[in-house]
Amino acid sequence: MTPRAAARPGGRSARVQQSVHTAVRELQAEHGRDDLTVPQIAARAGVTPSTVYRRWGSLSELLSDVAVERLRPETQPADHGNLREDLEHWAADFLEEMSSPPGRSYIRDALSGDPDGSNAGQCSGYAVEQVTTILHRAAERGEDVPDTDTVMDHIVAPLMYRILFRPGLLDPRYARDLVTTVFYRLMPLP
Amino acid sequence: MTPRAAARPGGRSARVQQSVHTAVRELQAEHGRDDLTVPQIAARAGVTPSTVYRRWGSLSELLSDVAVERLRPETQPADHGNLREDLEHWAADFLEEMSSPPGRSYIRDALSGDPDGSNAGQCSGYAVEQVTTILHRAAERGEDVPDTDTVMDHIVAPLMYRILFRPGLLDPRYARDLVTTVFYRLMPLP
């Protein structure tokens, strides 16, 4: 969220946000993401262009906000009964989603219209929440668990780095190999 | 590099590239990065706007190419006589450079005007080269060395992830802690 949008105010302001976000999603689905303009979005949303500029500052900040909303996970991580499988499935799903063409576009949009870094922080916040849920569940089962930052640093970060910078090296085994490394090498020492 | 620019052709074409890149750098230094327009860049470079569009496609692709050039390391990694110090110093320098305000802008520019991912690939290629140099030197000294991808996945990737997504968690000790983890936990098993 940009500071302007962070307040999530109710009433007219919330309706404007929703109709503008919906307009962006519809136009992206119809035209692809490279051709959007603020006047076109405003017309579809039934607001004036100056409303969009006043609220979001620029097209890229608006696209960043929309992208972050689309990156929000819709479900809790699945419970497979043990930590290893929970992490393997979650990491495989994360990789598949984020490395898809829409996933890559959303990550790029989220990063590029984000002058203060708060939208990028929101993206990693989603991953932190999901990982924390998985680890908490495992700890309640009595399993040994790594801490959240170990999973962020050594599973999520390498996945995201390859998605953004080295996509040629991604394959379905990679997420599983990172989980194996955490299990055999990076668990807390007794 | 975008495909158009990848050929690095000589003669007039190379001169155009150089004068346009120089114009972008000068204008960014004078005005900041948010206000640039193609006509303004073309005027400073002494070319027509259509030359810029023909060659780079869009402003964001041009800015991406310029950013990648600026992220190119200017020197070989320093030789401190042992792998651990070489990696600690290199990782600390990488963190300092990439997390600085200009570093962050270049990374964001490199990623955002990069439809085919080749500029992002070039950025990670620079890191791969530097890490490979460090590891090769250590192997020649007879030290045990991790492989390049272990360093990319467990030092470079976590650094870049926090730079882009979790800047509040960066501190100077972090790079050193990642090197320690590789040394004590992720070296090749005998």
Description of the molecule:
- Two copies of one chain form a homodimer.
- With 190 residues, chain A is mainly alpha-helical.
- Chain A folds into two domains: 55 residues, Homeodomain-like (Arc Repressor Mutant, subunit A, Orthogonal Bundle); 115 residues, Tetracycline Repressor, domain 2 (Orthogonal Bundle), CATH 1.10.357.
- Helices cover 73% and strands 0% of the residues of chain A.
- Chain A contains ten helices and no strands.
- In chain A, helix 5 crosses helix 7 and helix 5 packs parallel to helix 8.
- The longest helix of chain A has 23 residues.
- At the A-B interface, helix 7, helix 8, helix 9 and helix 10 of A face helix 7, helix 8, helix 9 and helix 10 of B.
- For the terminal residues of chain A, how far apart are their CA atoms? 41 Å
CATH class of the largest domain in chain A: Mainly Alpha
Low-confidence stretches of chain A: 1-7
Evaluate the radius of gyration of chain A.
19 Å
CATH superfamily of the largest domain in chain A: Tetracycline Repressor, domain 2
Q: Which two chains share the most extensive interface? A: A-B, 28 and 28 residues
Order of helices and strands of chain A: HHHHHHHHHH
Alpha-beta content class of chain A: mainly alpha
Total helices of chain A: the number is 10
How many strands in all of chain A? 0
- Classify the fold: give the CATH topology of the largest domain in chain A: Tetracycline Repressor, domain 2
Largest β sheet strand count, sense and barrel closure of chain A: none
Strand content of chain A: under 5%
Oligomer description:
homodimer
Mean pLDDT of chain A comes to 91
Provide the helix percentage of chain A. Answer: over 70%
Number of structural domains of chain A? 2
Overall morphology of chain A: elongated
Q: Specify the CATH architecture of the largest domain in chain A.
A: Orthogonal Bundle
